[in-house]
């Protein structure tokens, strides 16, 4: 206020300053004496009560000041300590600090909705009686900036560092095994939780290699030679591109993402091809870019690229591959933004947009139900639940859908309505095949607790037996045909030959023994699809004879189906059968097939080619294309089939995705 009167003596504070007292005649009077006098005069004018109140307020302010100074000091203190700690960690374990935090985000709290998944998946917070886990600050991977393929010797140096670090916190050591194939049962990794916890270590870092390596045999050497020959062509004429065209000595692009190179990474690791692996790794580090305006197929890029990167991360322990896996995983997520949450078939990974094929709003059933192993593993590794949530939702939805026939699913599903479409056609071949495979494999991946998956799998196999199983003439080969609107067709895709391997895997995991019997019968049929053909190579599709006719074999081939794309399914099943039975005939059958590939599909200047006519050895009509799965799957399964080392990708510790990329089985809670 500015009242010029003398202050009233009342019991409230009123400080009155006249302008003259503040600004003296002739301007602002700044002398100290004047100011002191002025203050003293004003103080005297106050009542005793007013003076006491002012003194009390000053005292109170002083006390508050002291208190707040003390508490503000704490954050400053901890901030300073933290940065000191950081510097110390870097100095003591050089490079180690960077590997994990740069790649793996801090674990996140689960969304409340994930509670819904408790029944579906074993998502209780894990008890870890035998997981040897160091504190998260020490869950460090070795630096991989200039990674080299590890020999046991190379490995041991990295391991020493880890062991040293872990010893300090009194935990037991982790050992990376050469080829990463060995994980002791009590060291395999644990399942995801609805509360997705801390990010996971790669399997290789938890492995303990205690055995002498099993020497590589002649047949395995032949596979290595075949791989090198294929790689030579790819390297020379298609390096960094999707597929080799070995005859025209050029390449073809599908997604423009170096598909063959990525698909082949873990094969090189398993085959022990150090140099090749290292140069491929360099390409991934320097040239693989996902920020591209390109449409990719969700399923194909998941099983080949995401799957390939994840398994290579597990085998090598190299965080580069996890980083890339995370990148592509995130870029694929827009596919799930549909009215039904059934994903679209295609995603533009640069723009972050997704769409169905131009002619329909349907997706393929096998495609939307065969991306789960990879996305679930990505969630487990990163601690980010969104990947698992998206794919689990698809499975839960498909589980409840009507339109199945005794567990057999139609081939299409609509992304708007979420309903099956084109009802009435049932096959275990193209567009449905890996739905069945992933039912079993997801159940195995998560520790055999997701009962809905198992139920769907068991029901489906009963459906196969009831509706699709027949025997051919004259050899009485058991085969899986198709059902179209009530009519049985004796047609079987080569793709169906994944089934014996899957059945055997189920039996190995405790399912009924007659699945194994069926597997034995079917794998023989698949072998006959090669053996009964002039080139010793199976066509893409066969028709079986249901009635004996003079001069006719069991297998008939239509002109449009005579091609062979170097597919893996039969060799894959032979591998499972040999692993579980030890019967050498499976190795011998695989050996015959390898020789046929070498005889009819090998291109002298490097690479192998698909052919159009398996029936005419003198007119093979090469298609001039080497599919990425020849290196990713076919040769890998060959090598594993010929191996007598059950720890070379131990099937109790790893589950193969549908592109032959091994992912760890999660440790039961
Ligand atoms: C691969 O991409 C996968 O095995 C897929 O499941 C089916 N087709 C090819 C191999 O034939």
UniProtKB/TrEMBL annotation:
Membrane-crossing residue ranges in chain numbering: 53-73
List of residues binding Ca(2+): 658
Stored Pfam families: Glyco_hydro_47
Co-factor requirement: Ca(2+)
One BP term from GO: carbohydrate metabolic process
Gene3D superfamilies, sorted: 1.50.10.10
Record field: compositional bias (Basic and acidic residues): 143-153, 195-212
GO cellular component: a single term: endoplasmic reticulum membrane
GO molecular function: calcium ion binding; mannosyl-oligosaccharide 1,2-alpha-mannosidase activity
Main location group: endoplasmic reticulum
Residue segments, region Disordered: 116-153, 180-212
Cysteines paired by S-S bonds: 497-526
Keyword set, alphabetical order: Calcium, Disulfide bond, Endoplasmic reticulum, Glycosidase, Hydrolase, Membrane, Metal-binding, Signal-anchor, Transmembrane, Transmembrane helix
Catalysed reactions listed for this entry: N(4)-(alpha-D-Man-(1->2)-alpha-D-Man-(1->2)-alpha-D-Man-(1->3)-[alpha-D-Man-(1->2)-alpha-D-Man-(1->3)-[alpha-D-Man-(1->2)-alpha-D-Man-(1->6)]-alpha-D-Man-(1->6)]-beta-D-Man-(1->4)-beta-D-GlcNAc-(1->4)-beta-D-GlcNAc)-L-asparaginyl-[protein] (N-glucan mannose isomer 9A1,2,3B1,2,3) + 4 H2O = N(4)-(alpha-D-Man-(1->3)-[alpha-D-Man-(1->3)-[alpha-D-Man-(1->6)]-alpha-D-Man-(1->6)]-beta-D-Man-(1->4)-beta-D-GlcNAc-(1->4)-beta-D-GlcNAc)-L-asparaginyl-[protein] (N-glucan mannose isomer 5A1,2) + 4 beta-D-mannose; N(4)-(alpha-D-Man-(1->2)-alpha-D-Man-(1->2)-alpha-D-Man-(1->3)-[alpha-D-Man-(1->3)-[alpha-D-Man-(1->2)-alpha-D-Man-(1->6)]-alpha-D-Man-(1->6)]-beta-D-Man-(1->4)-beta-D-GlcNAc-(1->4)-beta-D-GlcNAc)-L-asparaginyl-[protein] (N-glucan mannose isomer 8A1,2,3B1,3) + 3 H2O = N(4)-(alpha-D-Man-(1->3)-[alpha-D-Man-(1->3)-[alpha-D-Man-(1->6)]-alpha-D-Man-(1->6)]-beta-D-Man-(1->4)-beta-D-GlcNAc-(1->4)-beta-D-GlcNAc)-L-asparaginyl-[protein] (N-glucan mannose isomer 5A1,2) + 3 beta-D-mannose
Family: Belongs to the glycosyl hydrolase 47 family.
Function per UniProt: Involved in glycoprotein quality control targeting of misfolded glycoproteins for degradation. It primarily trims a single alpha-1,2-linked mannose residue from Man(9)GlcNAc(2) to produce Man(8)GlcNAc(2), but at high enzyme concentrations, as found in the ER quality control compartment (ERQC), it further trims the carbohydrates to Man(5-6)GlcNAc(2).
Name assigned to this protein: alpha-1,2-Mannosidase
Organism: Galbula dea
Lineage: Eukaryota, Metazoa, Chordata, Craniata, Vertebrata
């Amino acid at each position: 206020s500015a009242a010029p009167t003398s202050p009233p003596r009342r019991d409230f504070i009123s400080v009155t300053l006249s302008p003259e007292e503040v600004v003296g005649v002739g301007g602002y009077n700044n002398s100290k004496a004047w100011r002191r006098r002025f203050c003293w005069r004003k103080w005297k004018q106050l009542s005793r009560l007013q003076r006491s109140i002012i003194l009390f307020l000053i005292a109170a302010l002083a006390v508050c000041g002291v208190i707040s100074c003390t508490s503000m000091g704490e954050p400053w203190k901890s901030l300073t300590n933290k940065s000191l700690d950081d510097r110390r960690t870097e100095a003591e374990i050089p490079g180690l600090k960077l590997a994990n935090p740069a790649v793996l985000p801090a674990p996140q709290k689960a969304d409340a909705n994930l509670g819904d998944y408790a029944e579906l998946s074993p998502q209780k917070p894990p008890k870890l009686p035998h997981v040897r886990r160091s504190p998260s600050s020490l869950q460090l991977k070795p630096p991989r900036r200039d990674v080299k393929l590890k020999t046991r010797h190379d490995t041991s140096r990295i391991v020493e560092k880890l062991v040293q670090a872990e010893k300090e916190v009194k935990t037991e050591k982790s050992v990376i095994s050469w080829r990463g194939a060995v994980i002791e049962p009590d060291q395999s990794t644990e399942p995801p939780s609805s509360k997705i916890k801390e990010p996971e270590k790669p399997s290789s870092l938890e492995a303990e290699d205690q055995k002498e390596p099993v020497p590589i045999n002649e047949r395995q050497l032949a596979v290595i030679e075949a791989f090198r020959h294929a790689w030579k062509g790819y390297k020379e004429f298609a390096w960094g591109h999707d597929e080799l065209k070995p005859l025209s000595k050029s390449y073809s692009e599908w997604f423009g993402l170096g598909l063959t190179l990525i698909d082949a990474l873990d094969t090189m690791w398993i085959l022990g091809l150090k140099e090749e692996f290292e140069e491929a790794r360099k390409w991934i580090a320097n040239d693989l870019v996902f920020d591209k305006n390109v449409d990719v197929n969700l399923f194909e890029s998941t099983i080949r690229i995401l799957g390939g990167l994840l398994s290579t991360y597990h085998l090598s322990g190299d965080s580069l591959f996890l980083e890339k896996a995370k990148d592509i995983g995130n870029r694929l997520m827009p596919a799930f933004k549909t009215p039904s949450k059934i994903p679209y078939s295609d995603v533009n990974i640069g723009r972050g947009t997704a769409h169905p094929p131009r002619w329909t709003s349907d997706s393929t059933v096998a495609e939307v139900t065969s991306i789960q192993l990879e996305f679930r593993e990505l969630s487990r590794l990163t601690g980010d639940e969104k990947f698992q949530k998206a794919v689990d939702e698809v499975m839960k939805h498909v589980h409840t859908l009507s339109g199945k026939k005794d567990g057999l699913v139609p081939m299409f599903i609509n992304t708007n309505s979420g309903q099956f479409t084109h009802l009435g056609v049932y096959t275990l071949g193209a567009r449905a095949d890996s739905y069945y495979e992933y039912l079993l494999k997801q159940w195995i991946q998560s520790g055999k607790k997701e009962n809905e998956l198992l139920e769907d799998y068991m029901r489906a196999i009963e459906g196969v037996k009831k509706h699709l199983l027949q025997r051919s003439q004259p050899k009485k080969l058991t085969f899986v045909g198709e059902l179209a609107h009530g009519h049985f067709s004796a047609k079987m895709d080569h793709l169906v030959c994944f089934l014996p391997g899957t059945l055997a895997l189920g039996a190995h995991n405790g399912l009924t023994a007659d699945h194994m019997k069926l597997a034995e019968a079917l794998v023989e049929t698949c072998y006959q699809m090669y053996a009964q053909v002039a080139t010793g190579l199976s066509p893409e599709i066969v028709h079986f004879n249901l009635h004996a006719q003079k001069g006719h074999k069991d297998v008939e081939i239509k002109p449009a189906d005579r091609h062979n794309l170097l597919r893996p399914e039969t060799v894959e099943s032979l591998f499972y059968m040999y692993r579980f039975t030890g019967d050498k005939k499976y190795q011998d059958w695989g050996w015959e097939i390898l020789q046929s590939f070498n005889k009819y599909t090998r291109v002298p200047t490097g690479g192998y080619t698909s052919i159009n006519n398996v029936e005419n050895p003198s007119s093979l009509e090469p298609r001039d294309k080497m599919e990425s799965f020849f290196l990713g799957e076919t040769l890998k399964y060959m090598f594993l089939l010929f191996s007598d080392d059950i720890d070379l990708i131990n099937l109790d510790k790893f589950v193969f995705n549908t592109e032959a990329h091994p992912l760890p089985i999660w440790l039961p809670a």
